[in-house]
């Protein structure tokens, strides 16, 4: 959330401290912008793809801890950003690259974080921090450096109690409505690549750039709509299908009017991540907060409709509470759980048996990540084809 960047490259070696809401703290060095920031501390296990992680709007208000020890080696390029800016509210790395090296690199990660006012910390034991978050669960955190650190005591030494008090004043992720803070201000169209076959209305609840691209690759013209779009706005695009994007925040806060309207009409519907949670809630299932969530690009998921296991990209802290072992009756007909995470049996996908509607809890667009789940975009295309026939 609040970021108050100050200082210059000269301050980079200055001390920084990370304070968790349960009182544990870690001392390191300022990385990126100098100042203070707050958010929910979460860890990501991706070994690559930090640029995509940083620019994924689903990370809005989260302080991301990288479990990969070396971060920033390939710098920042002009091609891999998933949205218009960095969304993480803070960034935690063990050992940042001193000299980035890649043929596409335009600037260093450190400089990019500084330019965008993202406060980070480096030089801390990220393995110990990750183990702590695994044991205790995701929780609020603050990072303090420069004046923000000095002013806590007024004498230059950090006053732990004062910093902790500030962390405890930060808002929690549970109950947070954040889609409205990240969504596009205006609708826009991503044209189909090649021959146009379908039109899809995509609700931008925090969409990543690769997602409309994956649809466009399949001959879909994508009308990306703000999160505030009404059912009339959706149908004004004369869609063959509706797409519900990923996004930050607690799904329990979302307005389900549009989703329910689409379900009533029986238009083909595909949701990912936050979209899966909204579909689940519209069907009458609950959502709950996971202890520490799934974030990274190596999460094993089984598609129970085929038995195949896919390695997938995840970024979620909430999950749908639906029975794994039976078909459920919902206001829109029978529903079943189609995908399950093999690490912990968390629901990773849903479908309706009587309507062309399905969703997954993860990121089939895979930016970054393996492309195992790309078939889901083809499933969506088939549903739209069947609806036409
Ligand atoms: N990537 C997403 O869409 C995340 C969904 C939701 N904000 C969660 O944390 O579970």
From TrEMBL:
Pinpoint the Carbamoyl-phosphate synthase small subunit N-terminal domain residues: 14-144
**Superkingdom of the organism of origin:** Bacteria
**Which UniProt keyword terms apply here?**
Amino-acid biosynthesis, Arginine biosynthesis, ATP-binding, Glutamine amidotransferase, Ligase, Nucleotide-binding, Pyrimidine biosynthesis
Amino-acid biosynthesis among the record's keywords?
Answer: yes
Where do the segments described as CPSase lie? Answer: 1-197
In terms of SMART domains, this protein maps to: CPSase_sm_chain
Q: Which InterPro entries match?
A: Anth_synth/Amidotransfase (IPR050472), CarbamoylP_synth_ssu (IPR006274), CarbamoylP_synth_ssu_N (IPR002474), CarbP_synth_ssu_N_sf (IPR036480), Class_I_gatase-like (IPR029062), CPSase_GATase1 (IPR035686), GATASE (IPR017926)
Q: Where along this sequence does the record place binding of L-glutamine?
A: 58, 247, 249, 274, 277, 315, 317-318
Question: EC number(s)?
Answer: 6.3.5.5
Q: In which pathway does it act?
A: Amino-acid biosynthesis; L-arginine biosynthesis; carbamoyl phosphate from bicarbonate: step 1/1; Pyrimidine metabolism; UMP biosynthesis via de novo pathway; (S)-dihydroorotate from bicarbonate: step 1/3
PROSITE patterns on file: GATASE_TYPE_1
GO molecular function, one example?
A: carbamoyl-phosphate synthase (glutamine-hydrolyzing) activity
**Name of one Pfam family that matches:** CPSase_sm_chain
So what does this one do?
Small subunit of the glutamine-dependent carbamoyl phosphate synthetase (CPSase). CPSase catalyzes the formation of carbamoyl phosphate from the ammonia moiety of glutamine, carbonate, and phosphate donated by ATP, constituting the first step of 2 biosynthetic pathways, one leading to arginine and/or urea and the other to pyrimidine nucleotides. The small subunit (glutamine amidotransferase) binds and cleaves glutamine to supply the large subunit with the substrate ammonia.
Regarding protein family, the annotation reads: Belongs to the CarA family.
User: Quaternary structure per UniProt?
Assistant: Composed of two chains; the small (or glutamine) chain promotes the hydrolysis of glutamine to ammonia, which is used by the large (or ammonia) chain to synthesize carbamoyl phosphate. Tetramer of heterodimers (alpha,beta)4.
- State the protein's name: Carbamoyl phosphate synthase small chain
């Amino acid at each position: 959330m609040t970021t108050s960047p100050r200082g210059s490259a000269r301050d980079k070696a200055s001390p920084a401290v990370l304070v968790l809401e349960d009182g544990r703290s870690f001392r390191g060095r300022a990385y990126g912008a100098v100042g203070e920031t707050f958010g929910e501390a979460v860890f990501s296990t991706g070994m690559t793809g930090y640029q995509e992680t940083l620019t994924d709007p689903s990370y809005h208000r989260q302080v991301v801890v990288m479990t990969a020890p070396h971060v920033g080696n390939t710098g920042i390029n002009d091609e891999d950003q998933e949205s218009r800016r960095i969304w993480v509210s803070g960034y935690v790395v063990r050992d940042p690259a001193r000299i980035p090296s890649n043929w596409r690199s335009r600037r260093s990660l450190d400089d990019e974080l500084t330019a965008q006012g993202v406060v980070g910390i480096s030089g801390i034991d990220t393995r110990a921090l990750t183990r702590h978050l695994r044991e205790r669960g995701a929780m609020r955190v603050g990072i303090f450096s420069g004046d923000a650190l000095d002013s806590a005591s007024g004498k230059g030494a950090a006053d732990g109690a004062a910093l902790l008090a500030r962390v405890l004043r930060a808002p929690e992720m549970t109950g947070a409505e954040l889609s409205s803070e990240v969504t596009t201000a205006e609708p826009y169209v991503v044209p189909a690549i090649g021959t146009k076959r379908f039109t899809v209305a995509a609700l931008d609840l925090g969409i990543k750039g690769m997602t409309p691209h994956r649809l466009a690759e399949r001959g879909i013209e994508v009308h990306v709509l703000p999160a505030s779009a009404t059912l009339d706005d959706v149908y004004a695009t004369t869609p063959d299908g509706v797409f519900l994007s990923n996004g930050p925040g607690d799904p329990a806060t979302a307005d389900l009017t549009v989703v329910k309207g689409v379900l009533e009409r029986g238009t083909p519907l595909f949701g990912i991540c936050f979209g899966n949670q909204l579909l689940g809630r519209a069907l009458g299932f609950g959502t709950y907060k996971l202890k520490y969530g799934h974030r990274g690009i190596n999460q094993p998921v089984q598609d129970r409709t085929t038995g195949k296991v896919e390695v997938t990209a995840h970024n979620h802290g909430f999950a749908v509470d639906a029975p794994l072992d039976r078909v459920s009756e919902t206001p829109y007909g029978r529903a079943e759980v189609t995908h399950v995470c093999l690490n912990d049996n968390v629901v990773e996908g849903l479908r309706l048996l009587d309507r062309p509607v399905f969703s997954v809890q993860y990121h089939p667009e895979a930016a970054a990540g393996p492309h195992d789940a790309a078939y889901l975009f083809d499933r969506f295309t088939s549903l739209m084809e069947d609806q036409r026939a």
